[in-house]
Design brief:
2 domains, alpha+beta, 209 residues, 44% helix, six-stranded mixed beta sheet, 7 helices, Glutaredoxin
């Protein structure tokens, strides 16, 4: 009886360890090699180039994101104005680099608002890149020094009138040479917008080209 008991305990222990190892492997495989994943002082931070879905890996951030996304009421009149401005020139493409911090309170409030606006617009001439940064405004292996980020979140808007621009992947877009040669910064929203997010975006887009 005693041998049977200890044999079963050993078997359950092996299964328990294998389950933990399996979960660790799964967790690592769900994270893109392009991003970093930090855990310090009970804080989980994603850094580097990221996809929107990868933010779900930070439950505390994702729950706040979903709450603010749902609670924000869109200004339909301003959205229509933004859409009309984008339609004036079909070759005008707007690129947005959203530098965010999964640890940052302002990011949790403002980033969902920006994303909800873009989701509502569904305009083919708007392109966005997401970059996670840590408390030192560093993005792991992704060099963002040329973006001159001081506070988070920072949403940088670039203008281009190249008709081929949307064929360029997000990885090609990141690069000092590309930005200097093809794109022109027309404005940025830092921490919080001036007025509503829709109003600030419209102000940026209406700048003379």
């Amino acid at each position: 009886m005693r041998k049977w008991f200890y044999a079963n305990i050993k078997a359950w222990a092996i299964l328990f360890v294998l389950n933990i190892l399996g979960n660790k492997v799964y967790a690592q495989e769900t994270i893109s090699p392009a991003i970093g994943f930090q855990e310090t002082c009970n804080e989980r931070i994603i850094t580097g180039e990221i996809e929107l879905a990868e933010l779900e890996l930070i439950p505390e951030f994702w729950s706040a994101y979903l709450r603010h996304y749902a609670e924000y009421s869109l200004d339909q009149k301003k959205l229509e104005e933004i859409f009309n401005v984008l339609n004036i020139n079909k070759y005008r493409h707007i690129h947005i680099i959203a530098v965010i911090g999964t640890w940052c309170g302002d990011t949790k409030e403002q980033f969902p608002v920006l994303q909800k606006i873009l989701d509502s617009l569904q305009h083919s001439n708007i392109h966005i890149i997401y970059i996670g940064a840590d408390r030192d405004k560093l993005a792991g292996e992704t060099d963002i020094s040329y973006l001159n980020i001081e506070f988070l979140p920072t949403f940088i808007f670039y203008d281009s009138s190249c008709d081929y621009i949307d064929d360029i992947s997000r990885y090609d877009v990141l690069g000092t040479f590309f930005f200097n040669k093809y794109l022109r910064e027309i404005g940025r929203i830092v921490e919080t917008p001036e007025g509503t997010m829709e109003e600030h975006i419209l102000k940026i887009l209406n700048k003379k080209q």
